[in-house]
Amino acid sequence: MLRYVVAAQQDGAIRGELVRQGRPRSEKSRLAILNATLALIQDEGFASLSMEAVANRAEVGKATIYRWWPSHSALVVEALSQVPDFDLPDTGNFVDDLTALIFLMRDSVFGSAVGRILILVSGERTTIDPEVRRYIESRFVWPTVVVERAITRGELSEDVDALLLLGMAVGPVLASVLLGSAVPDDDAVTSAARTVASAFAVQTQPS
Length: 207
Description:
Elements: E1 2-10, E2 13-20, H1 27-44, H2 51-58, H3 62-68, H4 72-80, H5 94-109, H6 113-122, H7 130-139, H8 144-153, H9 162-179, H10 186-200
Antiparallel strand pairs: 1-2
Helix pairs in contact: 1-2, 1-4, 2-3, 4-7, 5-8, 5-9, 5-10, 9-10
């Protein structure tokens, strides 16, 4: 649709031009496209994802997708961004912080459909688009705040391998997502947090 807009006003004369007014996003179509993207990733994997397949699944024109997302990677990043960032409470000690983190990962991240898809895509990160890979890697940085707090308190050494520690802590929950096994219950989560915290804790020398 064309509409007339004022471009400038000089010497009392209003100058304008005809411009094409972009069609606003339809929220219904936007959600249909994002959900179709996630469903296809879950069903067929990232490598098989195409704009044409998304358009067919969402029942929209391929041109509509390209009008709103300039690239395949931009679409995937927005679809995956439906997993929100989370604030981790500072409980004052590493064991409780780690326990809270595992519960959060179990219930709000890995426990959501989008979170599970994010995990599946991360398994393909060596072969996917660099922009998507950078986004996925950035989404797994926020849990390190738990380790950083513990280092500041003196509960962990400064050279601790944060990724190894966190991987061991959330491993049982992650395995349940990837393998479709039973999700760890509250007692298992608490036990895992205590075991990992104890294994990495700074050892005090006897006086």
